[in-house]
Amino acid sequence: MTTKEPSDNGLSTDEIARLRRLLDEDDIRQLATLYAQYMDHGYIDRLREIFTDDIVCEYGPYGVWEGIETVITNYEKVKVDLGGSPFAAMHAGSAHWIEFGSDNTARGRRQLMDFLLTRAPEENPILWLAMYDDQYRKTEDGWKVCHTRLQFFWPERHTNDDFPGDFP
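User: That's the sequence. What structure does it adopt?
Assistant: Structure tokens below.
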């Protein structure tokens, strides 16, 4: 039930809290959009804008990367391995689900379709079908990803033993 308390803008306190939550959700979804854009453009150093300094990335067959410097270094290597050109790969994401643990923490899950655009036209461009399991933290600089885990489904399956867990 919505608490109706008069305010200068005609919104109840519950509606104001809901708007705050929607703004936070939008900020978190923007992280996923920026991640895909930065990766695809090759703006690897800009990943600092979306990851915390103590980020942990669990990437199945690619290993566990801990700390922003390790993440940047490893992604720079991936960029070189792909030829160093913008849009050698394309990260398409969808179905972003977000659940808040507190005012400053949240978790989310989103699907990934990862295309490798350097393949010949007659080859399948899909590199991976996967899912991100993310944890978010609100910092002085806004929301950031503090932990991410990729669950890989195709063409090889690499999932954690506890997947899918308690979703949602």
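The mean pLDDT is 93.
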